[in-house]
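note to self — DONT lose this again. spent like an hour looking for the file last time. sequence + predicted structure for the chain T wanted, 250 res
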Amino acid sequence: MEAARIASVDSDLVQENRAVGASTAEELIGWAWNRFGEKLIASTSFGATSAVMLHLVHRVAPRTPIICVDTGYLFAETYQFAEALIQRLDLDVRFYSAQMTPARQEALYGKLWEQGEEGVDRYLQINKVEPMQRAIRELGADAWMAGLRAEQTEHRAGLRRVDRQNGGIKLHPVLHWTSEDMTAYMDRHDLPYHPMFEQGYRSIGDHHSTIPTTAEMDPRDGRILGKTRECGLHLPLTEEQNQSLKSSGL
């Protein structure tokens, strides 16, 4: 029965991608708002070029709640950048954090991000995956828009513009935009980069695991948390993770 349901959903997604896969970012966001309405959310990291997706949502679907997962380890400049964009674009941003403070985590477990892949996985589960899943549940979201781009990682290169993740619909309006497309949009609308961008921080996450990169490097080389260059938010949950989220007090 479950296999039949998944096959049906996948077939529907194929049809949706045929219908809107070649649409503009604005058209896809408009389609998503018309279809999902108050069941639609977006996410942001307030990273280097996050102003692009936030501006698109502001223009096309301004009532959309926007989730920012706050690990408590973001750069001070990220918090300041977030506040400036929220005010400028009149955004409805909801900040979600782990149920255990960073200080308590470090007291009990040490610096998880320094404890190999197992420690990194636990860090991401506590600080990123669980807060995002909680946001989805609390807001009753059926669809989630994210500013992922195919050129960023191998995983993202395999995504569809209308996709499925953990039982919900995942939408990627700027999936096929290049770095040049992002720059052109920001210039056209006079949008700001993250204030650390000019210092070589082209992919920005937590302060303990983000470093600047040079022009000849891949921007994601500046993210040194784990091997996949993914923060965990945009990867499907394993069955073990699903059970952990359901049964733990995290």
